Amino acid sequence: MEGARPAGTAGARELSNPSPAWCQGNPLAGGRRSKGMSLRSTTVANGHGAPLGLAVPGPESWVQERLRTILLASLPKPHFERACVLGCGDGALTAALARRCDQLVSVASTEEALLKIERRAGGLANVKFERRQLPDQWPEGRFDLIVLGDTGIEFEATERARLAWKVRASLRPDGFVVGCTCSDRGGTGKESVANELGRVFPWPCRTRHEENGFRLEIWPGSAGSSTSPALTAPPVARDLSIREPAAERAVEAAAAEIASPPPPEPALSAGWASVLREQFRPPARGLSISVVIPARDEELEIVACLQGLAHQTEISSDAFEVLLLAHNCRDRTAEMARQFARQHRGLDLQVAELALPTEHAHVGSARRLLLNLAAERLALLGQRRRGGVLATTDADTVVDPAWLRQTLQVLRQPGVAAVGGYITPRPESLRRWPLALQQRRRADLRYRLLATQLAERIDPTPGDPWPRHFFHRGASLAVRQSAYQFVGGMPALADGGDREFVRGLLRRDLVVRHEFSVRVRTSARGEGRVEHGRAASWQRWARELAEGAAESRVESASSIRERALLLAEIRDLHRRGVAPGHWLWQETAERFGCDIPEPLLRAPRQLRSFGELRELWGAQLPVTLLPQSQAIEQLRRLLAE
Known about the structure:
The chain is α/β, with parallel strands linked by helices. The chain is built from 22 helices and 17 strands. The strands form three sheets. Strands 10-9-8-11-14-13-15-12 form an eight-stranded mixed beta sheet, sandwiched between helices. A seven-stranded mixed beta sheet has the order 3-2-1-4-5-7-6. A two-stranded antiparallel ribbon has the order 16-17. α16 crosses α21. It is elongated. The two termini are about 30 Å apart.
């Protein structure tokens, strides 16, 4: 496949000129040949079948040239970040691929083979030449393109399988493997590593071309596959502990495993719940949705909030109730809510008052009390009320007229446990802020949406596809009653209880949708009730302006991409049922330059959900910060590739 012309011809000398302009100054270019490593007698580019351009006389050299031409024309992308070629022949393919890669690693196992490659491609600054003993000495790092010739013909079957799994493990989820097999292997009757690709890639081959003399196959990584059934263990991995991948846990199935009542409360919390029960009417017979609102000193906002709920469209007023808890109020919040209820008899609005102890007088405790009571009310109406939905918003928030209808539409989709709404500031509230702060808010939103899009492209979240947003806060959050009880309810935290609740759902691999169609508008307050709430962002931007900071510093696109690539590989290992103590996890950690999380080391055989693995591994990589405008530009550039 690699060049038909012997080294030293005019064509070869042209390719050996200094690197072209496009790779000059490239920080990824310029790797040098690694120093000698230990050898084994098997050669990577052996004589059988003249793999990847070994120059031989006669018609077979034309076959190799044709194979190389078809390979280059069949590549799925015009440009690659980091590629690896195994079985490199005389370097013609290496030189041709170098023009389409930021960095290329060309591997051979003998000094003679390495010299042949360097004669043809040694002048290219973005090519790194490595002499390695395969399969033990595998190139470092990960690749978005790996090209295999008739590599490993003289290997034993277990060695070929092991090498194929190393290829699979070092391929980025958005990458591709090209396998080239020649029909004539010198009469050995043995297979190459390229023949093993169909055993380690469980999804369909993207491209297959076969004609007299050779076969070409291109296999996508996990991000480019349309299906991903479970894999069996490779033949070499006799110590591999494989479990059957758990079937996707539907929320209805989870409901059958739990008792109807909500989790037991501490004695003090149980007393508060008893006080609330006395203030609320029994649930209506047709009830299927319970909306809860914690409120504290919200007399200026509560009427607008309740008006949004009173004007819900395409949903029966008998199907939902609104439970409002005015806790520790020093104003007329409860009085104004009750007056609104008298004026809007069609809305099942019930108002309770409660004075919580100082250490519990926060939105986390109030929201948990309401949600637990709402789950109890739905459970009273039937056997676990699998169709029951708990929804929550804030007293300074106005929901869209289609809020409940769109929420139910999402939750009716199979396997969806919860839905987070898209949260925007109310226009009249937003106008209070200087234009410079409004611009910072828009830049922050733009950055976070681009970051979400990049992460989803590399590691798509099952059940929550792009386009999606990133909000899952108490201002707009709905969950099936069964899923709520399954994870133990809303944590009673002073700050971040809503976010911790969603993390609890994700740890159990339950699907949380982030829908743009579920919309609410909330106040853009300058003084918040919690440390990390919405107001905290406005305060941070105002502080940056006062300190003269031109813009915020945020996580770089490269950090976001690296974390998404790591999580995509973790997801793939979990989906294939690879036990946490297997050597594939260690190889993954080494490729990404991180440590295996400590809980996995303490219990290497404990089976875990992907959500738990995602949380453990996601914190292992360092974060690089950049000015926000630079990070946005990086994100746009990566998304345009």
